[in-house]
Design goal:
The complex is a heterodimer of chains A (about 250) and B (about 475). With about 250 residues, chain A is mainly alpha-helical. Chain A is built from 11 helices and no strands. Chain A has one domain. In chain A, helix 8 packs parallel to helix 11. The two termini of chain A are about 30 Å apart. With about 475 residues, chain B is an alpha+beta fold. A 7-stranded antiparallel beta sheet of chain B has the order 19-18-17-16-15-10-27. The longest helix of chain B has 29 residues. Classes of the chains: A mainly alpha (about 250), B alpha+beta (about 475).
Chain lengths: ~250, ~475
């Protein structure tokens, strides 16, 4: 029964926030972000193309993810939808988790396969380790973005402010840290590709740059995961225990 | 809205997104690679690479991943050559059986730009044949332009399929009054879909000199003027993830001999003006290799006279060496002709390039503390030591500071100042120090950093402001 209710809430969430015009926008943003930021690099089948063409994907996916999550969480509070929903026999935890699951699954299901277009465009091996690492890097960024968006939505309860604050914060951090830094989206991908490329293939994909250590790579991966866990758990506890829905 | 209509519209969006991306991508060049001969060039009647017949080594091709778009190949050679573009199968056939099955061939090419189309996204190789009786020095540079046809066709197919699905979804189903009522509905969406379809097709099928005065004789040449170029080897490699710095250097001399220097800590090429009389400067030119091992230190120097306007270098006994390209005329105009070699009867010239492909001024900062406006040369023609010159003769790519004309980085080759020291070519300098005033540097503002910082502060301010406003409202 609870499972049925949860699935029903997920379906409602998809119809409410991911119906056709918005879904089409999401799909178009994923395709354009993946293909247009293309610096035609060396004419070889190189995995570094994944890194150099990832900048716009990270930016646009963060923007879209932030907007959709803020619209769903803060927007539904602002519009009074959450209040109406909670007047039904629905647990707050179910509402929170169904929103999160539905949106995260759909956004990931759109962005991750579209990013795989690089396999064809750059002539790379399908399901190669570097492709999987790039997808993992994108997944980490989606996790980071949605957790920040949910966290800010819980605090501000305003759709516009949440979208603005999420996008500005993530864009600002990536711009200040730069494309090689351990804490930026592209820097994370660089560390993943450089470390595993050296360990598994004995070559540095970014040969001209210094090697990276296992600890740095682990830190690059753990930071977004820890931020994700802290913000989502914190938001969940706040939403289910403390937040006044007015 | 029916599921079929939604699916159709989604397909149209996917197709149009691919189309927009494909059109955007068509504005950028791809490939941009080049290759050519080293040293003696390609022997007469020889192939590069030869097929695997009686060679002690296994000939192989360089593979280039080319995109399905139009490609231009700039061919520069001292004689005529044949160039064949081979697909993977063609490359295999040539290496294994010596069978020539190119997808495109250009025979009897000399100093020209040729174009060819690639239809499949794959690895391609270039086979070169020298049909002449002379050794062929050549340089080929290839770049791709235009629309990637596979992406274009895919996007059109998806769009058309989406449009068909959407239109099919509007075909009235059922019978009698229900069918009639469906027919009577205004067909706004089908009309919009048709309009998108019609508009997308023609869209898919569519696929620029400032004259400035130039100063030949540099005003900055004075007694005591010097430039140090640091050529310390920076080769780095990794062994099991540990960075190892290569500190070995081989110095090649013009007489064919060479010396090996180990544990090199510094390699400096320096010239200093020790005397200046009218248009003739005396330069003290030196080359020093400093090593941790005293036995591996090397130093050589000589005094040469250089005409500061014509850049002719001669030993102090008057023996002419050649022309130096350690500086060129300052503040040149785009396309201005500059002399690279002037030892009668030989003369080699090139044209100046001051702008990037996007029309912006060229800046370089690799060897300098701050980026300076720069220029380089291209379109090299003429003769040197009786031989026709090409891009490989001077290793085009050297960068010159715009206001002074001083060489500030990039490859420099066969220069008379090297010849005066008896040494062959050096590598690319890492950095340079000089007492020549190069004028104001380009002001570089890291806008990404500034905007990023502003965005972070802005997001925090927005959140705090909203929280404060909400708290104030609650108190009221």
């Amino acid at each position: 029964m609870a499972q049925h209710k949860f699935l029903g809430l997920m379906r409602w969430e998809l119809e409410e926030n991911l119906s056709l015009p918005l879904l089409a926008f999401l799909v178009a943003s994923a395709i354009i972000a993946t293909l247009i930021n293309y610096t035609f690099g060396p004419p070889y089948r190189e995995y570094t193309h994944l890194y150099f063409s990832s900048g716009t994907v990270f930016l646009i996916s963060s923007l879209a993810t932030g907007a959709f999550f803020a619209r769903s969480y803060a927007g539904s509070i602002g519009r009074g939808t959450t209040k109406i929903m909670l007047s039904y026999p629905i647990k707050r935890s179910q509402l929170f988790l169904s929103k999160f699951t539905a949106l995260f699954l759909v956004i990931s299901a759109i962005y991750l396969p579209v990013f795989c277009v690089h396999v064809y465009v750059d002539g790379l091996v399908a399901f190669g380790l570097m492709i999987l690492l790039s997808l993992f890097g994108l997944l980490l960024q989606l996790m980071l973005t949605c957790s920040v968006a949910v966290g800010i939505s819980m605090v501000t309860k305003s759709e516009v402010v949440s979208i603005l604050a999420t996008v500005l914060l993530l864009f600002g951090l990536d711009s200040v840290l730069g494309m090689w830094d351990i804490l930026s989206a592209q820097g994370r991908l660089f560390h993943l590709l450089q470390y595993f490329g050296n360990e598994l293939y004995d070559t540095l994909p970014f040969g001209g740059r210094d090697t990276v250590t296992a600890n740095e790579t682990m830190l690059a991966v753990l930071v977004p995961i820890v931020v994700f866990v802290v913000l989502i758990v914190g938001s969940f506890v706040y939403f289910t225990r403390f937040m006044e829905v007015d | 809205m029916k599921c079929l209509t939604k699916a159709g519209i989604l397909l149209i969006v996917i197709g149009l997104s691919f189309l927009v991306s494909t059109l955007y991508r068509s504005t950028s060049e791809s490939g941009n690679f080049g290759f050519g001969t080293f040293a003696a060039g390609l022997a007469p009647k020889a192939w590069s690479p030869e097929w695997n017949t009686s060679h002690p080594y296994a000939p192989r091709f360089n593979k280039y991943f080319l995109l399905p778009r139009e490609h231009r190949m700039d061919v520069k050679t001292n004689t005529i050559i044949d160039v064949y573009v081979l697909d993977p199968e063609g490359a295999h056939l040539w290496l294994a059986e010596g069978k020539l099955e190119p997808i495109v061939s250009f025979e009897g090419v000399r100093q020209q730009v040729v174009t060819f189309n690639i239809y499949n996204r794959d690895d391609y190789s270039f086979l070169v044949h020298n049909p002449s009786a002379d050794a062929a020095e050549y340089d080929l540079s290839v770049s791709g332009y235009g629309i990637e046809t596979d992406l274009l066709y895919s996007s059109l197919i998806i769009t058309v399929f989406g449009a068909v699905v959407t239109l099919v979804s509007f075909i009235p189903r059922g019978s009698g009054r229900r069918k009639q009522s469906l027919v009577n509905k205004k067909a706004v969406l089908p009309a919009a879909v048709l309009a998108i379809l019609i508009l997308s097709l023609p869209t898919a099928s569519c696929a620029a000199q400032f004259q400035a005065s130039s100063i030949l004789a540099p005003s900055w040449m004075k007694e005591g003027t010097y430039v140090n170029y640091d050529f310390t080897p920076m080769g780095r490699s990794y062994s099991n993830g540990v960075l190892e710095t290569s500190q070995e250097l081989t110095v090649f001399f013009l007489n064919g001999s060479r010396i090996e220097c180990r544990n090199v800590t510094s390699v400096i090429f320096r010239w200093e003006c020790t005397d200046l009389k009218e248009n003739m400067a005396t330069l003290d030119v030196s080359y020093s290799v400093t090593s941790d091992l005293a036995s591996d230190n090397f130093y050589t120097s000589t005094l040469v006279d250089v005409g500061i306007a014509n850049r002719r270098v001669s030993f102090q006994d008057g023996t002419l060496i050649g022309t130096t390209n350690f500086w060129l005329p300052s503040s040149p105009a785009e396309g201005q002709e500059v002399t690279l070699w002037d030892v009668p009867p030989d003369k080699a010239t090139a044209t100046v390039k001051t702008k990037e492909l996007n029309g912006e001024d060229i800046f370089t900062g690799q060897t300098l503390e701050e980026p300076q406006r720069s220029f380089m040369f291209q379109n090299i023609t003429g003769t040197m030591n009786g031989e026709e010159v090409n891009i490989g003769t001077f290793w085009g790519g050297g960068m010159y500071e715009y206001d002074t004309g001083l060489y500030v980085g990039g490859p420099i080759r066969r220069d008379s100042l090297f010849t005066a020291l008896g040494i062959d070519n050096l590598d690319i300098p890492n950095y340079m120090t000089t007492n020549i005033d190069m004028g104001p540097a380009k002001i570089v503002i890291n806008w990404g950093y500034v905007l990023g910082l502003a965005a972070i502060v802005g997001s925090i301010v927005v959140v705090v402001a909203v929280l404060l406003i909400k708290r104030r409202r609650q108190r009221r």
